[in-house]
From TrEMBL:
Transmembrane stretches, start-end: 42-58
Organism for this UniProt entry: Virgisporangium aliadipatigenens
Name this polypeptide is given: Uncharacterized protein
Domain of life: Bacteria
Keywords, alphabetical: Membrane, Transmembrane, Transmembrane helix
Taxonomic classification: Bacteria, Bacillati, Actinomycetota, Actinomycetes, Micromonosporales
Region feature (Disordered): 68-103
Length: 311
């Protein structure tokens, strides 16, 4: 977090989508029978703590995962102005038969919250903060440069300079999976945009040193189709972003910060990976960890991100 100023192509078939992450697929649904595809491999990623590198005394730390006591716990929406994704139209393969069939395509699933006053910020500054978070979500979860090429430069370029220095090392670890989707070599995505559903909210606050900030919370499910009708996988993340009053922080601290991030992955995924990349489930893997009929809960943005099991 910022200092206070003193004074105060293994991925064949993705080219069409790469040209436009919002491209709407117009192909009619096949009239043939389709199998209901549910992922049953669940991997839990660590929770990343807030206050990364804050210079007025706090230190960043890594919070370990705490298991749930009950099945399918939900979470309360944060306070502040909020917008929620609305259902899309008719189902499109390969999402047919999963909850994602009604989710919006790509960036259409990100709905900006309404503009409300935030103390210490102009309406334009609030609008700019919302736009910065939207661009970061697109860069992390929808841009083929990140997903296919595993190139985080566009994403990192959207952060405050000093925030960038602290987040960049995440991309050498599994921590980056809390912010971005990166597909491993040897796995291919189908030529369909990801499906997206979630909520986007924000409110104002003040640090212990009296610096105003906007805290923006995004809670989204991102569903991706594997090539060759191999099923789907999803990432469910909740990220808290902050923008500080630019007149009260150093130049290198002006812009977008990630203050907290956590997530899980679910679906036809390789549970043996520990590098933050997503690979297709290997044929030799034994399916487990989720009981039949429980799969829907992991598609729900309101589901708690604290899980009692993983693989």
């Amino acid at each position: 977090m910022p200092a206070v100023n003193q004074p105060p192509d293994p991925f064949a078939g993705l080219d069409g989508w790469a040209r436009s992450v919002e491209r709407r697929e117009t192909r009619a649904l096949s009239s043939g029978r389709r199998r209901r595809r549910w992922g049953r491999r669940l991997i839990v990623l660590v929770v990343i703590g807030a206050a990364v590198g804050i210079s007025w005394g706090a230190r960043g730390d890594l919070t370990q995962w705490r298991p749930d006591a009950a099945a399918y716990p939900t979470q309360s929406p944060p306070a502040g102005a909020q917008a929620t994704t609305t259902p899309a139209g008719r189902a499109k393969r390969p999402f047919e038969g999963t909850p994602a069939e009604s989710y919006a395509e790509g960036e259409r699933g990100i709905v900006d919250p309404p503009l409300v006053a935030v103390a210490g910020f102009s309406d334009q500054q609030v609008t700019d903060a919302i736009g910065a978070v939207r661009r970061a979500m697109v860069a992390g979860r929808l841009d083929p440069r990140m997903i296919v090429q595993r190139d985080p430069s566009a994403y990192l370029g959207l952060l405050a300079p000093r925030a960038r220095e602290q987040i960049e090392p995440w991309f050498a670890t599994k921590s980056a999976a809390n912010l971005a989707t990166r597909v491993a070599d040897g796995s291919s995505l189908a030529q369909y945009p990801p499906r997206v559903r979630g909520t986007f909210s924000y409110l104002g606050g003040t640090t212990e040193h009296g610096v105003p900030y906007i805290e923006l919370t995004t809670n989204y499910v991102w569903v991706y189709p594997w090539a060759n009708d191999a099923g789907v996988f999803l990432a469910h993340d909740e990220v808290k972003w902050r923008v500080y009053d630019p007149g009260r922080v150093a130049p290198a601290d002006r812009g977008l910060w990630v203050s907290e991030a956590r997530s899980y992955l679910f679906g036809e995924i390789d549970c043996g990976r520990s590098d933050g990349l997503v690979g297709l489930r290997r044929a030799a893997d034994v399916t487990g960890g989720v009981q039949p009929g429980d799969e829907k809960q992991y598609y729900d943005p309101n589901r708690s991100l604290e899980l009692e099991q993983g693989c």
